[in-house]
Amino acid sequence: MDQLGTFHSHVLIFPFPVQSHVNVMLNLAEILTLSHIQVTFLIPEYIQDDGPRFKRIFERYPGFYFEPISDGLPFNHPRTGDRVKELFESIDATTKPEFKNKLNSGDLISDGRAPLSCIIADGIMSFVIDIANDFKLPTILFRPFSATCFWTLFCVPKLIEAGELPIKGESNMDKLVSSVPSMEGVLRLRDLPSFCRVENVSDSQLQHVVSETYRATRAYGLILNTSEDLEESALGQIRTKIPQIYTVGPLHAYLKRLKALPTSSGLIEEEINCLLWLDDQPLKSVIFVSFGNMTVLKRHQFLEFWHGLVNSGKPFLWVIPNNLINDECEIITEFMKDGEKRGKVVDWAPQEEVLSHPATGCFLTHGGWNSTLESVYEGVPMICWPFYADQQVNSRLVGEVWKNGVDMKDKCDRRIVEKMVRELMEEGRREEFMKLAQGMAKLSRKSVSVGGSSYNNLNRLIDDIKIMSHQK
What we know:
Layout: E1 9-14, H1 19-33, E2 37-44, H2 52-60, E3 64-69, H3 84-105, E4 118-122, H4 127-134, E5 139-143, H5 147-154, H6 156-161, H7 204-214, E6 221-224, H8 232-238, E7 245-247, H9 251-258, H10 269-279, E8 286-290, H11 299-312, E9 316-319, H12 331-342, E10 344-346, H13 351-355, E11 360-365, H14 369-378, E12 382-384, H15 391-402, E13 405-407, H16 414-425, H17 430-448, H18 453-470
């Protein structure tokens, strides 16, 4: 990849307005900027001033521009759990027309910016394709979850036709599904994306995500934050429908090499204290616990996890954001006080730094794709408790395909939590999990190294964008 210099291309990047999607598309945006490509990033208004990263990017890269855009919801809207449906509706009513107005206004090519070469849009917002066509701009869609989940959603009509959807009750959730080619013998009903857990297949949210998946066939190409080694089977199937695929993951790994600043630069004092606490812990002794920023726990679920961790006797670092518990939030205060005796409780932590820390021995996670890739890359075994969207599929990959961790979906019991922590952290199967996790890490690191499949595909994406600029 080239170093910074004269900009000949200009890409508009448009993420779905939730933090995890914004984060991974920011990684791609930084990489493109470091490769002589000018970037305008449509940042959701409600998070544009959230944290030091945005300011650091803006100041560091002269070819990087932030452009705020509204998702139409109040700033204090949770945008989590069941209320994501409201976000879909608001984007259609507010964001879609505002996006078209921005393209019409000429503001996106002001301040000396070059004409747009193409648009990279989140795959859940395929309306961009039609609007971009009106401006003769090619659209490349970016799906920030696993290729296996993408392929599973593509197969939902087959699942319905075969009578495997809708799911009929809870008694047969371990039945293997047969209508997702290449995943026979792997996916059970309980491993299908959470959108599939509906009584009626005409459910609006299910139909929305399936139609968005199908519309990806109309885009110029599809970017997936994965690698050939991680998801070879699913990728082979997707290519029969969408030949132009760029498998470029894990994206966060490139910035470890490309950025001149160390990855911990810009961390606030609280985050530094978190890492200093880890410095005092023995090698591979700490359970890192984080359920992301969209998971919502019920009170009894929080208590089961808490007691399971305490009963395991292992030190833990647990990230508990304000939105984690949906009722009786005052219980957190008392548990945080007690947590200082058992481990450390914080409301945010620098996840990449924590996972790469020598003291971290296990990751209790919701199984979001960003978190999964970061854990795979660092060779940290996982305990997965999926909550939403693709997480059900991802956790099955961890527990059944890669076997670098365990999957405890649909269970929330302190005895199971304690058992799984001990299984991954104590003698017995610990060495087996560590060996498999380290093997996955080697494959992941190889893919982003010079000559690796993801490295080559990322360079192909960069070259294709530059070609688009010359065709204007």
